[in-house]
Structures are given as structure tokens and as C-alpha cells.
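Moderator note: this is an archived Q&A kept for reference. The question asked for a predicted structure of one protein chain; the sequence and the answer are reproduced below.
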Amino acid sequence: MDPVVADLSAQHAQLRAVLEGLRDEQWEAPTRCEGWDVSDVVVHLAQTDEMAVASAMGRYAAVMAELTEGLEPTGSIDEGVAAMVARQKDFPASELRGRWESASSRLIDVLDGMDLSARVMWVTGELSARSMATTRIAESWIHTGDIASALGITVEPTSGLRQIARLAWRTLPYAFSSAGRSMAGPVAFHLTSPKGESWDFNPDEPALTTVSGPATDLCAVASRRTDASATSLRATGPDAREVLSLVRTYA
């Protein structure tokens, strides 16, 4: 199994362990995703894993049409996601968990059986299946943390954290472009893993801006779950402030 797919499977396993045995009232616990409880987050993960399966199988447009059928057009991706979740949230917890488990397991099977360099459709356009799998690691990690936080549970970072940190570094040009900003030059990340290892992401050309600190902090900032000022991250260079403000792991 490709390491990216293995890391996604490990992240799924962590979330599965969190969801097992939850009481009915725990599914209604509010999360740090504004307006969403635990069940809403699980619906979202099920829907997006179904979308990823469809993308890998060349059926992305068809499945998106099914998920959005009858919904009014929205002005942003976030609004569209919220509308999709709102329409499919009122199901028993066992059905919601079963739907996500089915979609996530199917996604691993499909990715494991395909060429990850193949181009597929995703939310903002075309990308490699490997990149899509990496975004799924990031989203699963983010929302596992959202659910765990709502339930007062502590979860340790999985092996996929390095993939998430690299995704945040690699997509900096996209993050700047989406904000209507231009980068002054290449950026390097010098991060420390939860186990104390050095994770260095260096550009081909000499870096003008460097970000250093715990990888967990960087991923939390990139997923908009904490502000850089509340972390141990340090940035130097012409784009220091903008990198910590704009870095992201999602569309």
C-alpha cells in the first residue's frame, strides 16, 4: 500500500475508535465547527469521502449532482457544504457512523487499486489522486480533532501529520493566490515532529522566508483551528506574517 493511502487508513482508524460506543447525546455535542454538532461533522466526512470515491472512479460530477439535487445555488464552497450537511443530518447515529465507515473503507480500497499519479476532479479543479488522498488525510485529521475536542477526548497525531504539513507548505502559492496576494519568494518549513524528528521542506531555490516550530502547531494553524500567535511557531523573512496568516490545507 502506498504510504499516503496507509496514512489515510491510519487516520480513519483513529476516528473510528473515537466514534465507537458514543452515547446518543454525545452525537449532539457542539463542535468548534460553527453550527455543527458531532453528527453534522460525521455527515460531512461521509459526503466528502463519497465525493472522493466518485472522483477516483471518474464519477465526480454525477455524485455531486446527487448530493446537491434540489439545493439552491450558494455563493461559496462553505455555504454549499453547509447546505449539503443540513439536508442529510437527521438520521440515527448508527446509520451516520455506518455511512461514513462504508465510504471511508471504500475510499481506501479504490485508492489502493489505482495509479495515484492519475488526474482526477476535486472541489476546485483537477489534481492528482495522490494530492486528493493527502487532502483527505488533512480533513479527516482536522475533523477527528473537532470531534475529540467536543467530547473531551485527547487524540495523538497519526503518521499522516507529515503529509499534512507538506501539503500546507506545497500549497502556499495557492493560498496566496486565493487571497489575492503575491509571494516575495520561496518559503521553507523547518518543523519538529511529535517524536522530535526534523521535518524539513525546502524549495529548489534559496528560501527567503522560513517557518520553524512544532509540526502539530503548523498543522493546527493551517487548518484554522488556532492562531499562530498562540503557538510556538516562528517565521522570518519578507513573507513571514503572510505565510502564518494564509497557510491552509483546504480549498
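Archived answer notes: Residues 129-151 form the longest helix (23 residues).
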